[in-house]
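Quick one, T. Sequence first:
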Amino acid sequence: FLDPSQFNSVMNQTETALSDKTGVYANMPADKRIELARQTKEQLALSTVEGLIRQSPQAAMADLKSGKYAAFLDADKTNSLMGQATTAITAQEVDAQRRERLADKAQKDAEENTLDKIINDAVENPSSLTASSIAASNLKPSTKLELIGKMNAGFFDKPAPTKGGVHGPVAARISAGWRPEQADRPQRNKQTHRRRSFADRRAQIAF
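Structure tokens:
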């Protein structure tokens, strides 16, 4: 493919060579020389536009629509090149959308992992959670603000024990994994409690 920036210079060199009365084409009949010039210019234009399609199909389409190569390309060849440019533009758009989807998924996965870790750490050790650590995380701003707000509201605090070892207000106890039917049980499985506590809190964080 011809470098689009070289089109004019190569075209001028071609015309000069074909019209040189002392050159290699000097003895060629005029009608044949004219046809050779037409074919050569057409091929140069084709090669130039095809090269431009590879570099920037949008620029190639603009040049074709403006008629920049109309003197060298007939309607069929122009339409064919426009079809190639359209295909290349569509391919670029599809690739860009795919890259954007992959980037969004990777970001969301990373945020999900961070959110799970923050909540799990808070359930295990509420004092480890700070507004600064949330603000410095890779979570999106709205999720950071929600977490900080819930932390300030005591969402991650351990309910204070009351008589009989039953924890705090009913809402707080339920969010921590407590269920009414467990009130008379002397002990609960701690691992199950932690899992429920994490799941309950995680489910209440919008994401």
